[in-house]
Amino acid sequence: MTEKKILPFNPLDKVHLGSSVGRAMLRQPVRPMAELKQFIGAGLYAIYYSGDFVAYDIISECNVNDRFGAPIYIGKAVPKGTRKGGDLNANPGKVLHDRLKQHANSIIQADNLDLSDFSCRYLIVDDIWIPLGEALLIARFNPLWNKLVDGFGNHNPGKGRHAGLRPRWDVLHPGRPWAEKCRPREETADQIIGEVREYLSNNPPPDDSSI
């Protein structure tokens, strides 16, 4: 019987590096999204829901009493020009703050959500580590709005560019004016709610919210 090969620990392995960034993010304080102050920087964030929207009860139960163990959405905000290979030392400005405010506005516009039910934590990170940390956190928590109810992070496509389907998020949480201009989907809100319940039953939030 051949002996199993044991690989040496590599502290610079991308999984270990991503874990380091993820742990640092999860140690950050949780703030109500309705009370965000302006700040400078790019980085990662997690959004938590603790309200009573139908089908989100499993998520809410993990986020009450200051537990905040089940993010409903995880995202990133990188400096402008990063995807095009811009200046690595460029000032990121308020990209992370602005991204969170965009999300807050989407929640405010939704007919069946209340911003007071949402909290977030964020971490300002050097640009190079942002995508790695985001990928690891999404893989760890399988956030509902990342994996199943897509479209929360979408932007208004602009005048004359609404030929695409309405995002599933906007079917479930209608109210964003630009999404109402998109082509209707075949799925109804009730159908998506059924998928949400099945998804959360098969992918419950982890018992241990650490990394």
Short description:
This protein has 211 residues and is an alpha+beta fold.
Give an overview of the whole structure.
This protein is of the alpha+beta class. About 35% of the residues lie in helices and about 10% in strands. It has helices spanning about 15-25, 55-65, 95-110, 130-140, 145, 170, 175-180, 190-200; strands spanning about 30, 45-50, 70-75, 120-125. Strands 1-4-2-3 form a four-stranded antiparallel sheet. Helix 1 (about 15-25) crosses helix 4. The longest helix has 15 residues, at about 95-110. The radius of gyration is 19 Å and the shape is globular.
Helices and strands, with pairings:
Layout: H1 14-26, E1 31-32, E2 43-49, H2 57-63, E3 71-77, H3 95-109, E4 118-124, H4 130-141, H5 144-147, H6 168-172, H7 177-180, H8 189-202
Antiparallel strand pairs: 1-4, 2-3, 2-4
Helix pairs in contact: 1-4
Q: Main attributes?
A:
211 residues; alpha+beta; 4-stranded antiparallel beta sheet; 8 helices; 4 strands; globular
The stretches of 5 or more residues where confidence is low (pLDDT under 50) are none
Strand content: 5-15%
Rough shape?
globular
SSE succession? HEEHEHEHHHHH
Q: Strand arrangement, largest sheet? A: 1-4-2-3
Radius of gyration: 19 Å
Average pLDDT level: 88
Helix fraction bin: 25-40%
User: Count of helical segments?
Assistant: 8
Compute the separation of the termini in Å: 35 Å
Number of strands: 4
What profile does the largest beta sheet have? 4 strands, antiparallel
Quickly give the structural class: alpha+beta
